[in-house]
Design goal:
With 239 residues, the protein is α+β, with helices and mostly antiparallel strands. It has one domain (6-224): Peptide methionine sulphoxide reductase MsrA (Peptide Methionine Sulfoxide Reductase, Chain A, 2-Layer Sandwich). It has seven helices and eight strands. The strands form two sheets. A six-stranded mixed sheet has the order 7-6-1-3-2-8. A two-stranded antiparallel ribbon has the order 4-5.
């Protein structure tokens, strides 16, 4: 299924043309997705027992979910909405950009297998560009903003310190605009949005924008990459 905004039709036409031309010319069929090599955080959360949760927003949730479903130590990555009310947590309404929601992914992880800091490093390195305000790639609007919804004081402290560290190092050339705040509520997206990257790898939007992110995960974070994604499938989509 294509994203339904009519404003994306020119992008799809251009993407399909570019992919076809590349295939004809014998070139790689996917566009290069920028990734930034960044240091791990100097401060990290302790490797506590029990599954932990953070909600991450970095543009279209298809790609964000896809990356974390290929990340070792992540036990669940569910696409959904955060930042607004339950009443407006549906795709059509969120797509208006008036609800306060951001397209988000609820990441549940085992801190004995992957640290919170490593998740942040992956998020800032290969998932999205944290210097873009209210947009990612072809998508624009507050629903595509960069945001981290934390579930503990420790997560908030580590996140704030890491952003300050990356800004001080000027690794992007521009300041990070990611908003950080406590999670007030997460609402799973419609079933057809779940596991979208895995189910539709040849869809032009996915092939052009999101598959390169998974490839960059494999390249830059080989020790954290798993080939078989951890899918939502028929799991109950609740917090």
């Amino acid at each position: 299924m294509f994203r339904r905004s009519l404003s994306r039709l020119p992008f799809y036409a251009a993407a399909i043309g570019a992919l076809a031309l590349a295939a004809f010319a014998g070139m790689p069929s996917r566009a290069a997705e920028d990734a930034v090599v960044i240091p791990p955080p100097a401060m990290d959360a302790p490797a506590s027992n029990g599954i932990q949760t953070v909600v991450l927003s970095g543009g279209c949730f298809w790609g964000v979910q896809g990356v974390f479903q290929h990340t070792a130590g992540v036990v669940s990555a569910v696409s959904g909405y955060a930042g607004g009310s339950k009443a407006t947590a549906n795709y059509e309404t969120v797509s208006t950009g008036t609800t306060g929601h951001a397209e988000s992914v609820q990441v549940k992880y085992d801190p004995q297998k992957i640290s919170y800091g490593k998740l942040l490093q992956i998020f800032f390195s290969v998932v999205h560009n944290p210097t873009e305000l209210n947009r990612q790639g072809p998508d624009s609007g507050t629903q595509y903003r960069s945001a981290i919804f934390t579930t503990s004081d420790e997560q908030k402290k580590v996140t704030d310190a890491y952003i300050a560290e990356l800004n001080a190092a000027k690794v992007y050339g521009k300041p990070i605009v990611t908003k950080v705040g406590p999670l007030q509520g997460f609402y799973p997206a419609e079933a057809y949005h779940q596991d979208y990257l895995t189910l539709h790898p040849n869809q032009p939007y996915i092939a052009y924008n999101d598959i390169p992110k998974v490839e960059n995960l494999k390249k830059l974070f080989a020790g954290n990459y798993i080939e078989k994604p951890t899918l939502v499938g028929q799991a109950k989509l609740t917090d």
